[in-house]
Amino acid sequence: MSAVSAQSLIHTEALAIDDCWNRIGIYGDKSCAVLPEHIHCRNCSVYSAAATRLLDRYSFEQEHVEQYATRADERKVATRSLMIFRLGDEWLGLATRCLDEVAPMQPIHSLPHQRSRALQGVANVRGALVPCLSLIELLGLDPTLAGTPSLRVMPRMLIMAAHGGPVVLPVDEVDGIHNIEERVLNVASASGEHASAKYTRGVLQWKTRSLRWLDEEQLLGAISRSLT
């Protein structure tokens, strides 16, 4: 099964779910009879069951999807396109080909009986429930890296194209998309400076910053394990 068909099945599964929270719930006209009792849809068993159903589909489809691979034509280019973003004081870069979009931060709703420490819950992205994972937890970073709200910089959500469908990765700041020379990346990868850094291909100097270049294949594998 291809990644495209797997994502199509996830989309079909999402359409089959009665998203009552968008019609009569907190995101709709608030006419739901049990809304006053629960105060918010995230406290309702219907909402939790829908989120669990989607996570179960992610787990099932992961078993049938081929491992993510870098296309040969992209390895031949002189530069690589990276999305550069910040977690706390640390700057990181991730291949743009594995990202769908960058979106404004949305509320993250926790789920009962979390399956992993990295899984923070779900976020409502254009009416669809999307799993939200902590990059700090996935990368094994110091939890104190979590940024504090700023009036100057707004946090963002990276929507990553995982094998089973999109996932949300909250970050403190997004600098943008930048083309980095292959030569610079190869030197960073060969330096060995990243040997003890989890899911990292290399560490390089970018502008006046130290930039950690993430290994998207290893990161996708960690995301898949966190959703199964």
From TrEMBL:
Q: Where in the cell is it found?
A: Cytoplasm
Q: What Pfam families does the record point to? A: CheW
The alphabetized list of GO BP terms reads:
chemotaxis; signal transduction
Q: What is this protein called?
A: Chemotaxis protein CheW
**Keywords carried by this UniProt record:** Cytoplasm
Organism lineage reads as:
Bacteria, Pseudomonadati, Pseudomonadota, Gammaproteobacteria, Pseudomonadales
* PROSITE patterns given in the database record: CHEW
Q: What is its main location?
A: cytoplasm
Question: Which InterPro entries does the record cross-reference, listed alphabetically?
Answer: CheW, CheW-like_dom_sf, CheW-lke_dom
Top-level taxon = Bacteria
Question: What GO CC annotations are associated with the protein?
Answer: cytosol
Q: Which residue spans adopt a coiled-coil conformation according to this UniProt entry? A: none
What's the source species for this entry?
A: Pseudomonas helleri
